[in-house]
Amino acid sequence: MAEAVRRPEAREDHGARRADVGLAPGARRADGGGGAGALRVGVLAYPGCFASEVFGVPDLLTMAAHVAGPDAPGYRVTVVSPRRRVVASGGVSLDVRPPREVDVLVVPGFERGPGTDLDALLAGLAPETEAIRAQAAAGTAVVSLCVGAFLLAGAGLLDGRRATTSWLYADELAGRCPAADVRPERLVVTDAGVTTTAAFSAMYDFALDLIRRHSGDRVARTTARVALVDDARTSQTPYVDPRLLPRPGAGFSRLVMRRLDQNLAERYDLGALAEACRVSTRTLLRRFAEETGHSPLAHLQASRVRRARHLLETTDRTVASVAAAVGYQDPGTFAALFARHTGHRPSAYRAAFRRRDRIPDPGE
Questions:
Q1: Do β-strands 93-94 and 104-107 pair in parallel, antiparallel, or remain unpaired?
Q2: Closest to 22 in 3D by CA, of 35, 33, 7, 36
Q3: Are the C-beta atoms of residues 45 and 54 closer than 8 Å to each other?
Q4: Which positions of the chain have pLDDT values less than 70?
Q5: d(CA 228, CA 92)
Q6: What is the DSSP code (8-state) at residue 97?
Q7: What is the pLDDT of residue 20?
Q8: Which has the closest alpha carbon to 242: 312, 167, 294?
Q9: pTM higher than 0.90
Q10: Cα distance between the two ends of the chain
Q11: DSSP one-letter string for 166-199
């Protein structure tokens, strides 16, 4: 098994389909509980964790064991906690056992409401943070689901490593853990024995690859089909909704954003924009960058892509018509920009995210 404390050469998969959790040929396996050669998986339960994330990975592993058959190496899963009693989100009481030696430790995410005090929440999970740190020091491969990455950060496991989490909280994770290289577009990232995943359903992307590595491609593919789980996703970018992200900037940048958002189809003219805002182009660029961290053009492009996504999801407009509606006369230029932002060409995005309840567009 790759030992996290040795800090071997970092490895990162560039998609969710090949997430290496640090298991190497010859790594220790348990006998019994899942058959000879069973992979020992511990799920760390704690107060307020999502119960579905406690059981999501084990349930998929159970399906995989059935697909593989009784003679194949299976999975021995235990829900563990340093506490005697755990109540998960929604008031669900969990049956837990003391932490034990495992091959893989899975850390689920937790409930975050609008008024959640994250500092207080994490401070209250000090026993869990210490348990995570101890497992990593023993050479256990550690995996976080969604915002479980914040617990790994608290244990010091993300320092110097690449990582991901829900796109909604990626900037916050990067701010809290500046020594980590946060990759918000990734579904699953593994670096030196530590794996982090994107939001909620990305636990299945991780679980499928764990199944692939332990039970083989055939079992993983069949399990995905039995469970109706997508085994071909590579990015969380298409799911990002910028409207849900904290809106950066102060008064000046918001004025600029509003003007750009109201004129998506117009040609980008920095000089005219600066004149409308009664500043020089240099001042506009400097103040906008200071308040938001990016350029007015980058904001405009993101807004155009957001509008294009809506049109592709809800109307029958051609790609060329959608491109023109957001300021691009050349469909090829638009398609390249759209793919860079979403990971999909416009037609592929429409096929994947088309809404059944679409309404006629006034421009049709």
A1: unpaired
A2: 7
A3: yes
A4: 1-36, 245-250, 355-364
A5: 26
A6: B
A7: 53
A8: 167
A9: no
A10: 59
A11: -TTTHHHHHHH-TTSEE-TT-SEEEETTEEEE-S
